[in-house]
Amino acid sequence: MEPPRCAVFVARHGEREDYAWHKRGENWQATAARPWDSPLTPAGHLQARAMGAAAAAHAERLGLAPICHIACSPLLRCVETAAAAATATGVERVVVEPRLSETMCEAWYRSWAVPGADSTWGGPAACRKGVAVAEADLHPAARAAAAATHATWAEAAALSATASLSDLGAGVPAVDGDARATFAYRWGHFETDAAQTERMVAGPKPPDDAAGAFAAAQRAARAGDYAQMGAYLKENAY
To answer: InterPro entries recorded for this chain (predicted)?
Structure first.
């Protein structure tokens, strides 16, 4: 009897707080201590749990091996999504993988670090790419190494302590987080598309099929480019 096939489920995070505020005409970032690191909304937590349950149901329906490994970016909204999905699927180990983090390009920095930033990708209308920004006017975190913007699992749990629907904290699946990667990008020294691809290629490559498929997803993953990821996984028979 053949063993169950292995598959990779790729999902975005649930609804984020800063975008919900933006839709209401408000600016969450204006008073946030970590303006780049929005948590999920209550609806986002429910979405994440539903996603985990749906992924598990799809795996069973398709005759696939049960979900046994969840990895996520170190950004809070992604860690919260992964924790909720793990709770829904019964997965006991989540890897917080810095190499899966958001691209650290100029558009990302302008979305939170420049004057008037309001979560808009590329920056607010008055401060898009090409508009000079004095270093003194930047958020202090933009002048430090980008690695400092990535929360460890323990830090993410602490940040979520007041979230009533958060799955982080006591009773959540244990996490075997990777060491914080040393990303030296900062304002004026932005990550390129090629560099982002390279760090995702450098993911762990353990011998088992599930981990191999995860490494393939890392190689294919680029911000928002799920078509490329799907093509890569199909080409490599994952």
So the answer is: His_Pase_superF_clade-1 (IPR013078), His_PPase_superfam (IPR029033), Phosphatase_SH3-domain (IPR051710)
